[in-house]
């Protein structure tokens, strides 16, 4: 996580504090200590883009656990260019954004409704990790519920390509085909979903 240049630099105390905060970090619960550390480090330190992004991701996750979904979304969307992050950091950022997207577009019965904020979150998720079928499905659902549902087609197909047993996605593909008037394709999708 930390490179030798940062360790050799004049930021040694900051690196030790950074390591301590991340060692105490619990990905699935709120920690005031971690949140405060991230906020202070982001405000006061001159961090390279990778470490800045990692702290932004942790801060965004802490905001999520405080039910500050707008703040978390803004924090996570403002992380630096995803091309500089390693695979693990990309996966954590994608996971956090997907969770936030879900908060913006799922009701109490876990039924999707259209949300521009969720669409933005899911779009960034796919830039970070396009190998997860759920991420393609979630983005496809937002497109389907939006003004141009046909744009969901390649995302549903990609989700099914990644996970051919994704019954919910296959059923949603059938709904899309039906909506587009492609009834033979819709029936084939529904039959495939039933067979799974």
Write the layout of secondary structure elements.
Layout: H1 4-8, H2 12-23, H3 32-44, H4 49-65, H5 69-77, H6 87-105, H7 116-128, H8 133-145, H9 153-162, H10 167-179, H11 183-195
Helix pairs in contact: 2-3, 3-4, 4-5, 4-6, 5-6, 6-7, 7-8, 8-9, 9-10, 10-11
Describe what you observe in this structure.
It is a single chain. With 196 residues, the chain is an all-alpha fold. The N and C termini lie far apart (41 Å). The mean pLDDT is 85.
Overall structural class, as computed from helix and strand content, comes to: mainly alpha
The H-and-E topology, N to C, reads as HHHHHHHHHHH
Biggest sheet statistics: none
Assembly state of the chains shown: single chain
Termini distance?
A: 41 Å
Number of strands: 0
Q: What proportion of the residues is helical, as a percent range? A: 55-70%
Could you name the ranges where pLDDT drops below 50 across 5 or more consecutive residues? none
Portion in strands:
under 5%
Question: What's the quick description here?
Answer:
By secondary structure, the protein is mainly α. The chain is 70% helix and 0% strand.
